[in-house]
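Input:
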Amino acid sequence: NAGVMQNPRHLVRRRGQEARLRCSPMKGHSHVYWYRQLPEEGLKFMVYLQKENIIDESGMPKERFSAEFPKEGPSILRIQQVVRGDSAAYFCASSPPTGDGGYTFGSGTRLTVV
Amino acid sequence: GIQVEQSPPDLILQEGANSTLRCNFSDSVNNLQWFHQNPWGQLINLFYIPSGTKQNGRLSATTVATERYSLLYISSSQTTDSGVYFCASGGSYIPTFGRGTSLIVHP
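Output:
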């Protein structure tokens, strides 16, 4: 079991470019969660998805950010027209359908906007 | 939403010392986890413990759900225990994180 796989591990983008972060959940997990961690801070919830459905996006900025979890393939967090304030570590977690047993996190993607 | 508070915010120990980290949450929860974020930024799942007590080597955790708190015990601390310890709790399927306890263990 390869665990939750996130790629890339590090991503550098210039202001105004697009950033695409990928997350493949653990085998058997159908729920995906994205979190953002700013330096010296805790993890802030962004969005919760199941296959082909966004369940809760209350933590995601209304503009420039979007997320999807297609029927096939990884979950994608997309940030358009990145700004310096988007620089952060973005973590993905997955859980089984029941939520029992807790959440497993990936190693994160560290986005730097220059 | 659920509020999660962790204490202390910072902790400095000498190798071999014991410590207790606390996590208070504001409402009933059906999941509670402790994580260790190592100096390289990786989040390691320590315990899934919505109630009761669990032990794993030098670490153990206790959650008293009726009183809305959880404790993480670290015994005989080692330098590799350094990092930030987070608890996350949630009444739904979305865990809310505390701000963490930053632990430094000196040799």
